[in-house]
Each structure stands twice: as structure tokens, then as C-alpha cells.
């Protein structure tokens, strides 16, 4: 129970607040503790990781399709110089597409894990946040937001408490 003037703890039946001296009239209502930063933001963070991963998957699919369908048929197009390294371009874009799709899959996994309060999701989201900082503008935004929510040591304690409460 807390004083409605200063927020100090008040014992049941106490007539005056010991901190501010305000008279306690009527029953003192119990105040729920304020949720921490992780508890407030982890759900939104999980949804954002799923959304950004969906956009990343679209880019990865585009690169993969470009590398496997357009570049192999580049010689058939007119006005293409003969010294264009078609084999290299096919390999490059296909590899980039696969890497981007793997990053999107990890992002989907991180978002799902954060929504389900999995113990490994905090670590995975922090690793992906550092990688995402280079993807301007959406990756940078979610990377900074993830680091702000999940990086402080107090956040680890709060997230671990949330995981334990979820398991119980």
C-alpha cells in the first residue's frame, strides 16, 4: 500500500504518511508495480522482427530469382557485351539471395522466440540487431530499438524473470 501524495509505502491503519506527512483518508489502494522496459517492449519487438524479416525475405527471394532466372539467359538478350561474366553474376546473386534468406529466417526465429518468451531469443535478437544496424533505414531502426530494449544488464535479469514466469 502506498501514499497517494508521494508514493511511499504505508502500513494498513496508518493515519499519516511517514515521508510527506499527508493524512491518509480511507483505505489505501495497492498500486501495481510499473512494468520494466523489457516487459513493455518485448511484444512489439517480436512483431517488428517478424515484419522486417518478411521484407528481408522478399529481397532475398528477388535476388535468388534474379540470379537463377535472369542472368543465365543474359546471352540471349540483345546489346549485351560478350565480356559480361555471366557465371560470376549467377553465382553472386544466388549466394547473396541465400544469405539474405538465411538472415530473414533467423529474424523470423527471433521474432517468434521473443513473442513466446524463449530463453535464447534475447541473445539471437541482440546478434541480429548488430547485423541489422547496417541495413538502412529499417534495419538500423530495429537494431537500435532492440539494443535499447535488450542490451542493458538489467534487461537480461528482467527477461530471465519473464522466461521463468512463462515456464511456471
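Q: What amino acid sequence fits the structure above?
A:
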Amino acid at each position: 500500500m502506498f501514499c497517494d501524495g508521494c508514493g511511499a509505502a504505508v502500513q494498513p491503519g496508518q493515519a499519516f504518511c511517514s515521508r510527506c506527512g499527508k493524512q491518509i483518508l480511507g483505505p489505501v489502494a495497492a498500486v501495481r508495480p510499473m512494468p520494466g522496459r523489457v516487459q513493455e517492449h518485448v511484444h512489439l519487438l517480436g512483431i517488428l522482427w517478424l515484419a522486417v524479416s518478411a521484407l528481408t525475405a522478399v529481397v532475398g527471394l528477388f535476388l535468388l530469382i534474379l540470379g537463377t532466372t535472369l542472368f543465365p539467359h543474359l546471352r540471349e538478350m540483345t546489346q549485351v557485351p560478350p565480356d559480361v561474366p555471366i557465371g560470376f553474376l549467377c553465382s553472386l546473386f544466388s549466394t547473396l539471395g541465400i544469405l539474405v534468406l538465411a538472415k530473414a529466417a533467423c529474424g523470423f526465429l527471433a521474432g517468434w522466440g521473443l513473442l513466446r518468451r524463449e530463453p535464447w531469443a534475447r541473445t539471437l535478437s541482440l546478434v541480429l540487431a548488430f547485423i541489422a544496424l547496417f541495413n538502412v533505414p529499417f534495419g538500423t531502426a530495429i537494431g537500435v530499438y532492440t539494443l535499447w530494449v535488450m542490451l542493458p544488464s538489467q534487461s537480461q535479469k528482467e527477461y530471465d524473470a519473464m522466461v521463468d514466469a512463462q515456464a511456471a
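Q: And what stands out in the fold?
A: The longest helix spans residues 37-70.
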